[in-house]
Amino acid sequence: MPSSNPIDKILHHVLSLSLAPLVGACGIDTDGFTTVACGSAGDTPYLAGVEPGDPADYIELRELLAPTGTGMRALESMGVKCAGATDRPACEEKIAAATSSRGFSLGECIGSCPSHVLIVSTGDEVLVLDTRDEVRAWLGPVNTPADAVLAASLEEYSVRCDHPDEGGVRPAGDAYEVLATRHTKICDPVERTLYVLAVGEGGGVQELESEVIASESGVCIGRRPAGLQRAAGRGATRVGAYFANVAQLEAASVWAFEALGRELVQHRAPRPLVERARLAGRDEVRHARLMRRLSARHGGRWEPPRVEPRPLRSLEELAIDNAAEGCVRETYGALIGMWQGRCARDPLVRRVMTRIARDEVRHAKLSWALDAWLRPRLSPAERRRVEDARRAALAGLEEEARRGVDPALVAHAGVPDERASRALSRNFAEALAASGHQVGI
Questions:
Q1: Does 50 map to a domain?
Q2: What is the pLDDT of residues 177-217, one digit of tens each?
Q3: Residue 275 domain-assigned?
Q4: N or C: which end of the chain has fewer CB within 10 A?
Q5: Which helix (H) or strand (E) holds 395?
Q6: What does the alpha-carbon distance between residue 41 and residue 45 come to, in Å, rounded to a whole number?
């Protein structure tokens, strides 16, 4: 039943519709932040692009190697030493001899924390700035993205370089917003939090948003075969056990599509439908492998699926199973995969789920193509029973959406929480009803 409203467009519409009212549903939106480029040593640079209130000839950031200041090493520098000095050798000697027994922190530090000093030369004058307040006063108005990063770092937030999800800066009116992290718990559990910081023109830092992104102490699945015997996945973490369960379901989908392909041949279905079922089975082999890797990454242990052999199904039985498992659950699974591809905090999970969701959309199109082929071959009574199965499957999704979700799954695996699940299941059912099931394939 081809139409001008293909299933992939329906799913993207449902996804957008569900995300719109849920501000922060996927955590902090990191779009729009410019990533901070790493310096030559692979660390976050603190001087590049900084524009202090009073121009200087030369600025050097040093790290104290001992609490007494008896040793220092240069981390960064900007400008030319003593470029404006009347006695350049004397100026350079002052810079070389500059030291301090105090220092300030830059970025987050847990445990033994290094202290820093700034050496600033202007003309013949050489200053040693060794407190946070002195550096703030020297910096003056925050006029550049680098100024904002330095201001946030002085407040002991970490702005990671070359990491778009944990470090960046963007303009916000007359000020800036900085994406940064900080540990908020360091013992049972160890917890790390992502922040959006407002950095004012005067250098003040305020937390606008926060989200726990690491703490140590509904699913995108494929078509389930008839006769599947479930065995719970296990793991050292809830996330690992979750992906172990998904790996088992993806592996079970291989059986489902193999059986479907054989049945389509027996029922003399068009060859393109048979080939699409076989291709889908090969996709599921890859999906299961990817899920096993994610499970192992998070300490999970998966169990291979056990499926009891079943006899050839009638056209009605095939249509009922396809309506529930394909047109509803598999299509909805593609939608959940799209959500996870946007919302998971683990970048690898986002990449994997985005890739799997694309495949699951193709499988959903196969389900609707199969529905279009089966329906004309059924009696009116059989078609009513197929529609009853579809409605029951949709009701099942709504019931599942009311169940609580472990916060670890929401954060790390991108599983929608209860509020998001309700919006997704409701909008999904309404979109199918609006299409009259006449979706493009």
A1: no
A2: 999 998 876 554 556 788 999 999 999 999 998 877 765 54
A3: yes
A4: N
A5: helix 380-401
A6: 9
